[in-house]
User: What shape does this take?
Amino acid sequence: ITPSTVIYAPGSLKFGRRIYHDHLRRGHGHITVYDAIERSSNIFFYKMGIALGIDKIHSYASLFGLGQLTHIKLSNEVPGLMPSRAWKLKAFGEEWQPGENLSNAIGQGFVLTTALQMAIAYNAIGLEGKVVKPFLVKKIINYSGQVLQEFSPHIVRDISQTPENPEDTFIEKKYFKVVKEAMRRVANGEHGTARWWKIPGGHIQIA
Assistant: This one.
């Protein structure tokens, strides 16, 4: 898929014996990934889930830290879950079913994430590939105003595809820009599903 790839997204999709619905029952018609993100098209991403399969989804999601501890200094942090074929076989003794690709592709099914993991993932999109370790305290100051210790963001890894990072699972920087623009349209586009959050005047745009 490329930013210009057009995919038909009707109001429902029959896969196997089940019919999967979009939140917009009349569907979105022929759309690109920009439209799919702006309009939150389930059908578009169901089709992506079928095309990619769960193991490739798992590989990319893991780059952003989903299904992993962030190692923030908080007790009782949980890793969440980003499923794979191997995980299901180990957890349930069952093979992965093709229909499960659809629900998990839109973050349902077995997928479990924390709010902090999602913040880190979106931050990585904003920074075009830099995954940053979160921290709670900016600085420690004593009663007289002297800075005893200061903390700053630490880049855990860079998942952008560069000559130094040529792996197939890494992501070209141009695609981060595509997602950023599509997310901007969610709040600012004509069909954005969060357009009610648009700030009047257009001087400041949120995504």
